[in-house]
What does this fold into?
Amino acid sequence: MKNSYALVTGASSGIGLEISNELAKQGFNVILTARREDKLRNEAEKIQRKYNVAADFISSDLSDIDAPNKIFNFCEQKNYQVDILVNNAGYGIKTSFHETPMEDEEKFIRVLGTSVIALSKAFLPKMMERNFGKIMIVSSVAAFAPPSSIQALYGPIKTFMNRFSDSLNINYNDHGITSTAVCPGFTHTEFHTASGVQDEMDRVPGFLKFSAKKIAYEGVRATLKGKPICVPTRTYRALVFLLKLMPNWFIGLSGKILAPGRYDN
It folds into this structure.
């Protein structure tokens, strides 16, 4: 449909940008949103030229409590029918929990958690009217692991997001709406540099690090099929299976080797 779109948050780089490209490659019009307006404009123009689809953008900071309404109103004013909502925006906080100002924690929770709820709540009614909708929530393998000693709230919020995605499926599958929690492991993006944990990322073995393009390909495919959860790559599917079996002390011990810094005291 001419006005049918996929909306992608955190779309200026990394997994979000690759998801936008993957959706456009499959013929979907896209709306990109993130903070960097110039980057959004350039990427939207590239997508439009490369895939011959409509591509628009809106600059918005999801740490602002009014951002989800701003994004929704933008789509309403443009008469964009959002059939696919991709909640991807995220970052990490390196400082210890006791050292991080509460204001920073609240902004973090808004970006990774509250904004996901707010955007889903905003776009769900129209999806229900059409009896169709796809929601992707980019979560993390961290949702299945014990909380680490860095980024204290990151894993717990991702666990919550997985449960929220389950709740969407339970409540709205009968309305033709599916939600997919996409849970990647270590991925080559700007995330770790921006979050101040690039040193830890550099020490992770190469076989545990994958490209954002691969994550996007598997995540989009799973979302369009309506799968409730997607753990991209066989490596991480096997790891998640093992995480469900291994005791926490063993995860911490092996984590010191495979994910240096995450389980240090």
Summary: Strands lie at 4-9, 29-34, 55-59, 81-87, 133-138, 177-182, 187-188, 210-211, 229-230. The two ends are 54 Å apart (CA to CA).
